[in-house]
Amino acid sequence: MDPRDEKKSELTVYPPHDSHIDEDPLAETQKTFWERSWPTFACGAGLWSDGYLQYVIGTVNTIFDKLYPKVYDGSVYSQNVSSVAFAGTVVGMLGFGYLSDHWSRTNTLMVSTVILFVFGALCAGAYGKDGSLTGMFNALTVYRFFLGLGVGGEYPAGSVAAAESSGEMEEGTRHRWFILFTNFQLDLASVASSLVPMIVVLATGEDHLRAAWRICLGLGVIPPLSLIYLRMKLKEPEEYRREKMHKFPIWLIIKFYWMRWCVVALIWFMYDFSTYSFSIYSSQWLEIIIGDSSPLWVTLGWNTVINVFYLPGSLIGAFCSDWFGPRNTLAVGVFLQGAVGLIMTGCYPYLDTNQYVGAFVVVYGIFLALGEVGPGDNIGLCAAKTCATPIRGQYYGTAAAMGKVGAFVGTYVFPIIVKNAPNKIRQGQDPFYVSSALCIFSAFLAFFFLPKINQDTITHEDARFRAYLEEQGYDTTSMGIVDVPAETEEVR
Asked: How would CATH label the architecture of 33-481?
């Protein structure tokens, strides 16, 4: 009899979510540091390319506005090129989340990587029939949708596999490695998405912006191309191999996880919903500092300065997550962000003056950094580690999709808030009263309703879930991937 089967039969009741188990089988594997860490890197680092390809389109839109003001500026093409990737991302999160659990972590991840590479290259080389601009913009819109599929696939495939692979890292460092290879990569990409175009525009000059936008998009395909080799060598995470489900008892899963999923999804929704309004500040003080007549590269340089503020927050949050736990770090970080947001809102009238803009930039940077310390770093980690391995892809993918929906809703709600404000000052203040209040509410939800996440939570949560399924009469002996002996493969 398989010792694992004997152990399964002894599980009759599932332990509380905040208890700690003594055994940590993933940490006992005889592997070097590189053997433990490179799967986490290979799984998560693709988010750099995701972030770059998502963020750089803002710069490309600015270039299109300059190149084709009559055809593009304020047109339906401008809206479609900017937003269609969002729709693809949501579809990708849901579809690849399903495939990640039902099919394979590594194969799903490989498919998303190929999609990123192929459609990233097609975006950079988009041409219309007979060289028409409308044809080019239509082609770019289609390519951006499919690119969004690949971006969405990285979340439930790449981040989930990174979380499972991080379980083999040294205890006490697992959360930081997950964050450094996921959210920190996104933050690095946000810096690159303005720094790289600035360098490209300086190199090409503003008389050659047609070449500049293609180069900016084309550079985004290099990271997924470089990851293809590493991801071809990936094996299924050990935890996934042990816990993979072949038959999914949907109703039992919903009964066990609906409350926890709702909390994670709601926090993610509010975080992305609020992020839209936070960009108002940066646009306001950028206008004060550089004005309307500055060269494009100057604007991109200041955008880089803004985005750099994310990095220290993400780095600090990665270590705080290990030291204080993801739940506490998320709650404290988002609460402090909300508090600073309220202070900034009260000081908003000074934003229109050159006298205080320097101090305001510093406070705004602290504000952005706190967002990364809290939900930026930890909401994805909580989504990945508050559920069992067999359904992690779908749990994570649907929660992340709710975040994207929140961002989409925010793009429509906040302009209405601004439009209905009684005066110009309130137009800047009202969105931030709403956003800061949501930050504080998110802190309340996280602290009181999210479970404690330990270093060994993935293994522990799988044990809880197995025990629950057995208690409900589900046959857990069918779970896992059975290795086929080499001699059997040769006969076949």
From this structure: Up-down Bundle (1.20)
